[in-house]
Amino acid sequence: MTEKNEVDIGELRQITSWLAAAEVEFIEIGRPAATVRLTMEKPPRTKVRTRTVHAPDDADGASEPPIAASASSVAVTAHCAGIFLATHPARSTPLVSVGARVDGGEIVGLLRIAQLCVPVLAPVDGVVVGTLVAHGATVGYGTRLIELAPSA
After folding, report:
1. Domain count of the chain?
2. Residues annotated as region Disordered (predicted)?
């Protein structure tokens, strides 16, 4: 005889709402008789735009050259409490390093919560300016982890 495994759709809805709130893209839950994989869709990528600001003309008729008003650096923050991992536990190389170019939505770190590793995603396209937290440090919600210089 086979064991009947039933899944309550209400429970799945609750789990997916928790995953969406924590910005978790993928989770796999397994038992000897069954495995459930939930994958969340990635949000659309956002682009950072720069604009040109023209200084007002001087009284003598000369004007200043255009000034590029670029966005200052963007911080990648922790969306939950956990232990920050700059390197995947099964690998020896860091996920990103200073000077690396990253795309919005790319994994730039991990937050370990018990045995679960939750990806930390770059919010915009850019270049890694610096890592603000040491590998293995305990962080709280909103902690600035990595600094990015947005791409134009």
Report:
1. 2
2. 45-66
Nearest to 106 by CA among 119, 95, 122, 88: 122
Tell me whether residue 114 is in a domain.
yes
What single-letter amino acid sits at 103?
A: D
- φ, ψ at 11 (rounded to 5°): -65, -40
The CA-CA-CA angle for residues 91, 45, 14, to 5°, reads: 75
Domain that holds residue 21: 9-39
Residue 35: per-residue pLDDT: 72
**Within a domain: residue 33?**
yes
Residue 52, token pair as written in the block: 């040109």
- The whole-angstrom separation of Cα 52 and Cα 150 is 16
pLDDT, tens digit (0-9, with 9 covering 90-100), for 52-77: 334 444 444 443 333 233 458 899 99
Do residue 145 and residue 89 come from a single domain? Answer: yes
pTM over 0.85: no
